Every structure is written in C-alpha cells, then in structure tokens.
Amino acid sequence: MSRLDIAQAASRTVGYSACPHDCPSTCALEVEVLPGDRVGRIHGARANSYTAGVVCEKVGRYAERVHHPDRLTQPLLRTGPKGAGQFRRIGWDEALDRVAEGFAAAAARFGSESVWPYYYAGTMGLVMRDGINRLRHVLRYSRQKKTICTGSAEAGWAAGTGRFVGPDPREIAKADLIVVWGGNPVATQVNVMTHITRARKERGAKLVVVDCYRSGTAEVADVHLCLRPGTDAALACAVMRCAFRDGHADREYLARYTDFPADLETHLAARSPAWAASITGLSAEAIEAFARLYNTTKRAYIRVGYGFTRSRNGSAAMHAVTCLPAVTGAWQHEGGGAFWSNRSVYHWNKTMIEGLDALDKRTRELDMCRIGAALLGDAGALKGGPPIAAMLIQNTNPAVVAPDSGKVRQGLMREDLFTVVHEQFPTETTRYADVVLPATMFLEHDDLYQAGGHTHIQIGAKLIEPPGECRSNHEVLQGLARRLGAEHPGFAMTAMELIDWTLRASGWPDAKTVLARRWVDAAVPFREGHFLDGFGTPDKKFHFAPDWSAVGSEWRRMPRLPDQLDIIEAATPDQPFRLVTSPARRFLNTTFTETPGSRAREKRPTALIHPEDADRLGLVDGSRVELGNGRGVVTVHARRFDGLLPGTVVVEGVWPAADFEGGVGINTLIGDEPIPPYGGGAFHDTAVWMRPAGR
Ligand SMILES: Nc1nc2c(c(=O)[nH]1)N[C@H]1C(S)=C(S)[C@@H](COP(=O)(O)OP(=O)(O)OC[C@H]3O[C@@H](n4cnc5c(=O)[nH]c(N)nc54)[C@H](O)[C@@H]3O)O[C@H]1N2
Ligand SMILES: Nc1nc2c(c(=O)[nH]1)N[C@H]1C(S)=C(S)[C@@H](COP(=O)(O)OP(=O)(O)OC[C@H]3O[C@@H](n4cnc5c(=O)[nH]c(N)nc54)[C@H](O)[C@@H]3O)O[C@H]1N2
Ligand code: SF4
Ligand SMILES: [Mo]
Fold this sequence. Notes:
Bound molecules: ligand MGD, iron/sulfur cluster, molybdenum atom
Number of helices: 27
Strand content: 15-25%
C-alpha cells in the first residue's frame, strides 16, 4: 500500500443503508463512505439473512450514479418549445413559486382534479415515494390507480389466496424443487439465486424455469420450459389435470383448505398435456415430465415472477399458478407452496406519510398506465372529469415506461399542460417539463424501507450531502404545501420524524431502535406463511372459483375456474410475431441507462430473433430491423438466438427513446388496454410485424 492508499483507507468509513430501487430484494447495504461526500463500493450486508452479502453489479458500482456528471443539481425553467429540452437555471424560490402558481391556476380554472400528481417507485422509500399522496389528498387533486407494475399480479394472487404473504423466501434453501415461474431473478432480484443455490448444493434440488426465452435464470436451470408468451395458464391447468389423473391430488388438503368446486376435476380433465402443448408450444412429453416432477415433490417452491402477468390474461394466469400447490397440498410443507410478495406482513399505518385522514374517495382515480389517453382528453381515461392541466411527476419516467408511449409523448407536448418533473437526471420526461427540480439520491436523505421479496424493515439514513442544490421529495412537498396552503401535520415533520411516527403507529420498534439493530425481521410464523390456519379469504379457504368481483371491475371477463383466457394480442398474418420486452440485467427499468458501466455492457437495443425467422427475413447478426404494428414502428438491431420459439421476439430493456434510431422507444408498440379484472400494463403482450430496415 502506498502512503496515499493508507491515508484513504484510514478515512474510509462504512455506512449502513438499504437499496431504494424498485426491486423485491431491497438489499441491506454496506456503503464505503469517503471524505468529501463521496462513496466507494457498495456491498451487501453479510449479517442479513436474506441479502447474505450479495448485491447486483449495478448497485455495487453505484458511485458511478451518485457522482455522475449529468446529475441535475439546479432547478430549471423551460425556455424553448415543449420537448426541445431547452432550459435556464432558476432559484428554488422562483421554481416553487411558479409551480404553486401553476397548480393554483389549474385548480381555479378546471377544479382541483385537473391537477394530477404522478409517481412511481424510482425510490421505494415510504417517505419519499408515497409522500406525494399527502399533497394530493389535502388539496383534492386527482388520485392515481397504481397499475404499472404490480396490479395484474396482485389481482391474480389475491383471488385465490386473499393475502400477500407466503412461505418465507429463505425456505427456498429447504426446497427439493424450485420453479421460477415467469421471472428472471438472475437479472431482476439476484438474491433469490443465493437461496436457490443453497438448495441445489445442500439438497440436490432441481430448478425449473418457465419463461418464453432462455433468460439468465433459464440458462442455469435444470429444465427450461420455453413457452409461447401468454400461455402459462394452459400449462398450469395441464399440470393440475395430471395430478388428478395420476392420484397426486391431496384430497384431504383440498377438502379442508380449499373451496374445491365439484366440477373442478371434470373442468381440468378436458385440459390435457396435448391440449396445453397445442397452446404453449411445449411438447406434451415435456409437460408430462414437469407435471410428474412437480406433483410428486412435497417441498416444491414456486417463486412467482411478474413477467407472465404482464399479458392481457396475466391475472388469470397468476391465479392458475397459485392453484398448483392447492391441488398437491404443497402449501403445507416447509420449502413448499408459492410466493409472490410479502407486503401484508408490514401492516403499516401510513396516515402521516400519505395524509390518509384527508383522503376523499370521491375524487377521481386515474389509471397511470393510461396517462397518454388521459393527457389527450380521452373521456374514459379521464373518468368523465375535467382535462389534466397540471402534473407533478416524481420517481418515474412515464415518457418512456408507460404503455403506448407515442400517445404519452403527444400528450406531454400539449402547450396548455403545465408539467413539473422532480428528477435526479435529465430523462425523456424532463425534456417535456416546464419546470425541472433536482432530486437527492437515497444516500443523501433519510427513508424507511419494506421488502417485497423478504421480510426486513430497514432505515436508510442520510450518509452524504447532496451535490448542488438537490432537494428531497419530502422537502419539495413541504415547500409546495406552504405555498398552496395545504395543511397537515406531516408537512411539519422531518423525514426521520415521519419514519419514527410510522414505525411506532404500525406497532414496530422506533427509528432509533431500528437504526441500532440495522433491520427488524417482520417474518410471520410458519403456520401463517403456509396458511395452515386458513387463507386470507373471507371463508379462509383457497379459492379455485374466486369471487373476481371483489378484485376488480372487469370481473365479468374472468374465467370461473382456472383456465387459459383467450384475450391476448394474438399473432395474425399481418402481425405474425409476438414481442416480449424482458428486463435488461444492468438496467432497472430506465434507471442505470445513464451509467457508463451499464450502457457499455448492454450495448444497444437488440431484437433476439429465432434463426428460422431470421433466415426467412434475411436477417444476420447486426442487421437493422423494424418492428411495427398499428401503434408505430421501432428500429433495432437483430441478433440470432435459438433460446426462444419461432414467432417470439424479445427486446431486453426499457432503453431511452434517444437510443433508438429515429428516437422512438419500444413502448410505442405496446397497447394500453387494462388487464382484467383490476388493470395493469400488458408489456409482454404485443403482436408485431418485422422486416429488414431501409428496404
Ligand atoms: N436488472 C433489472 N432488475 C429489475 C428490473 C429491471 O428492469 N432490470 N425491474 C424491476 C421491477 S420494476 C420489477 S417489477 C421486477 C420484475 O421482475 P420479474 O419478476 O423478473 O418480471 P419481468 O421483468 O416482468 O419479466 C421476467 C421474465 O418474464 C418473462 N416473460 C414475459 N412474458 C412471459 C409469459 O407470458 N410467460 C412466462 N412464463 N414468462 C414470461 C420474461 O421473458 C422475463 O424473463 O424486477 C425488478 N428488477
Ligand atoms: N417495455 C416495458 N416497459 C415497462 C416494463 C417492462 O418490463 N417492459 N416494466 C414496467 C414496470 S414493472 C415498472 S415498475 C415501470 C417502472 O418505470 P419507472 O417507475 O418510470 O422506473 P424508472 O424508469 O426506473 O424511473 C424511475 C425514475 O425515478 C428517479 N428517482 C429515483 N429516486 C428518486 C427520488 O428519490 N426522487 C425523485 N424525484 N426521483 C427519483 C430516477 O432517476 C428515475 O429516472 O416500467 C414499466 N415499463
Ligand atoms: S439486487 Fe435489487 S435490491 Fe439488491 S442492490 Fe440490486 S437493485 Fe438493489
Ligand atoms: Mo415493476
């Protein structure tokens, strides 16, 4: 070590934090804090039983993101035409005054519901993510139906089980069979793999992956069931059919713990492996083999992903998959059952963070996935109410990530729309803003975190000062509340006071204790996680025939019993390919599309095309190829790939539109019709044509 290295090592301290990103892993972090408000490497906490010392590569090199030269550090005011990206610097007072004036003017002209605060999970911190709802509720602005990510999965999970818990994710290590169904944890929540690896090493467990392409997770699996997108319920029905046929159904469990409809068996009898083969594109033999393996393994843990729920029939598919352990009774066994999210274990009291005491349910609730239609004045999307005249956007990049992004951009171009975007980076959404506000990152503010993929409550305390004039979401809301006369005790509290209030009011130890202990494990007892005292439904039974009307307004479109629902955007002679937009490993939605390490590894927007399809179209590796449908045309580069079925095309990653030739992003191709019964974005359910570009 040189003298300089020794000096640096001596001044380096370790700060504790939690990863704020939109990822079920919510890793417990150890951050190298360096002099001068800088950070070094970020590591996973070894002492945390779920994180177990592992973080993904993109967060490991987070210094690239915190100290990125392109970070927004000053408020900006638009000077050029909408969307031109021309701004000048202004001070915070002027910025907040202008925002408050804009919102007040909109409310005076069209009513308070013409202001639409819009947010998502760019940070998962409860204070910084959800605080925007306090301003919304106090001022009676339009509400937001949060459909973009969890809506369709949630609806399908709730229908059968009634509650968002499940066997502890650490029990994966005690399973004999793990089925990763429509998820890609190697890329999207790497810690799942830690526990799968343990099961494989210590018990010789098998890993089966159900995915429509050979993802990173499928690559390392024992069996990859590569099916056509949107056909998962057919596979699930055939597996259940085999269970009844072969005597592997647990009739005692069915009678005691489920609604076991009298006609379930006859319903499934018609859904044979041959039937499912014709729908899924799998062979009947592969389905039989999987059914035998699954139906005869007690410790069979299904780790349910989101991917297969992002089709028009996605909620129905999720319900069908949750039925599997109800037929075999796997729910009862350690290392058995199914798991999607643990959100019910936290029982938060979010009154102070979200201003729930000020909520008036008569204010309209607009579907965030239909932001394009709403901005363009679609009466259905606006629920028959006033136009949207002003928006505050925090922690999301809707110009790129929402469905039908051509419509979104057209809406954001409206001259009469006053758009305020609070961001860490210049994004495609800030381009369309009238006022841009610079935001802190998680290491620069205090926040409280829960985890969907495990059971720990954590606090990430401020470790460094932000660059320039960045302010946290909470500070911006405080400044606006003051100017707009929005009164609520939450606006008078600091972020740490809100954290402390929320912890106590929810029955958890206070902030000081949580900080000292680093995390609190909120895991429920074994019996509760395995539903041994009943499910979360009103009659405590698992429901094969759910009351869909309790789940969402479009319940009439749902099948009575688990079934393949024929409502996907099917391929046609004119649009013969089915496009899937799977996540990229080094991006997290559009986050990290700005970091050099991630960009260098992901290279450029690329279509993975089966060699048979590529040959027919005359495409070689690197060919420019156009994908199109009635919504638009997108140009990418081709890569021949035999890890999918002919007719399926995969484009990984939600790249910024600017990374595509012509500046048109992938979501231009994606429809915005809600997934029944509750809603959701059908990101992996798109029919397209494909042709070599420039012919
Ligand atoms: N690296 C990285 N990590 C991420 C994200 C990211 O973009 N990049 N996004 C984060 C977010 S917001 C979320 S919600 C989670 C999502 O994490 P996941 O649960 O992994 O869900 P998806 O990203 O929707 O897709 C996962 C897989 O589903 C497959 N799939 C698509 N359609 C179907 C289908 O019809 N049937 C089946 N069986 N498979 C299908 C896709 O090919 C993909 O491999 O990950 C989070 N983590
Ligand atoms: N084609 C396709 N589209 C998809 C998906 C897909 O699989 N395929 N996945 C969908 C899913 S699952 C999701 S969840 C959505 C996600 O879409 P988004 O919620 O838009 O997620 P990101 O694109 O990561 O954008 C988050 C933004 O929040 C900012 N941010 C982070 N922390 C803070 C903060 O503390 N304060 C403020 N003010 N800003 C902050 C980041 O800089 C980043 O620009 O995308 C959806 N879109
Ligand atoms: S795996 Fe997920 S939670 Fe963990 S560091 Fe990476 S993005 Fe964050
Ligand atoms: Mo998501």
